[in-house]
Amino acid sequence: MNGLILSMFVSTILSGVIATVRDRSVILWTILGALTGPIAVALLLCLPSRKAVVTPTPIRSLASEIRELQELRERGLISDDQFEQGKARVLAWPVGSTDPHALGSARALADSGWTWASYHPAARAAFVDLAQRHHLDLQWPDDVSFEVVCTLPVQPGLSFAVTLALEKGSIHCWGDGWALDGAAPGNPEIGLPADLAEGLEALIAGSGRLLVRTAYRDTSPFWTSLQVQRNGRWRTVGYQAGIPILPLWRRMIVKNEAALTMPRQ
């Protein structure tokens, strides 16, 4: 009997966690996991995830970047000066940069001065542009320890505050009771990553949403998903994930109610 209870408990936890990762109904699969045990876990593993499939970008190291430069120089495709410029530019990037083509163009070879500060102008411009397109006021707090920080406070057209921040080439986004993992644009000239920009546009316009999951008797969520509608389904474009201590949690949808209730112009 103890073995049966333990199996049910483990299956319940696994079903809930897998359902969360695959964006399935957590309550349904948690109940099925408790009733049918490993069968529910096996079925859930066979079901395709509802989340958009994103092809992973291979990580390129500093050594591989410099080796590629050396090969280009040996083949006579770049000069010694271009090699030194390209090497200096590569060293300005962080170790393990996900930028797949650091050496791809003449402009990239000539641009040897990229540092973390190079991200500031485009990020700041993207924050301002986002606010202006939705006719929202923007604040620049100086008490938050990030390189570039702005806040869209609660105001007509926005029912909850949103803070955007740049830190070491990554854009962070959070609000009251939720946060998203940092997203890297991959290029200092890109202010906001495409998926995050799409999600924020939809969220502020009222057509997107935040899906927040909070564990039982906990005050902060362990899972937050920024979602947009594509082909009639909710697709996750940004998230911050964790695992709850107990397999019991509540699900909350956050939408910009101010945008939904404002009269259309």
Tags for this model:
265 residues, single chain, alpha+beta, SHOCT, 4-stranded antiparallel β-sheet
Give the gist of this structure:
This protein has 265 residues and is of the alpha+beta class. The chain is built from nine helices and eight strands.
Plain-language structure description:
With 265 residues, the protein is of the alpha+beta class. It has two domains: 1-44, no CATH class; 60-258, no CATH class. 38% of the residues lie in helices and 20% in strands. The chain has helices at residues 2-21, 26-36, 38-46, 62-74, 80-92, 106-110, 120-133, 194-205, 257-261, and strands at 148-152, 162-167, 170-175, 178-183, 209-215, 223-230, 233-240, 249-254. A four-stranded antiparallel beta sheet has the order 1-2-3-4, with helices on one face. Strands 7-6-5-8 form a four-stranded antiparallel beta sheet, covered by helices on one side. α1 (2-21) packs antiparallel against α2 (26-36), α1 (2-21) runs parallel beside α3 (38-46) and α4 runs antiparallel to α5. The chain is globular. Pfam families: SHOCT. It comes from Sphingomonas aurantiaca. Keywords: Membrane, Transmembrane, Transmembrane helix. The chain crosses the membrane at residues 29-47. This is Putative oligomerization/nucleic acid binding protein.
Compressed to H and E, one letter per element, the order equals HHHHHHHEEEEHEEEEH
Mean pLDDT: 78
Taken together, the total number of domains comes to 2
- The helix-and-strand class reads alpha+beta
The fraction of residues in strands falls at 15-25%
Helix content: 25-40%
Biggest sheet overview: 4 strands, antiparallel
Transmembrane segments: 29-47
InterPro entries: SHOCT
Protein name: Putative oligomerization/nucleic acid binding protein
Keywords: Membrane, Transmembrane, Transmembrane helix
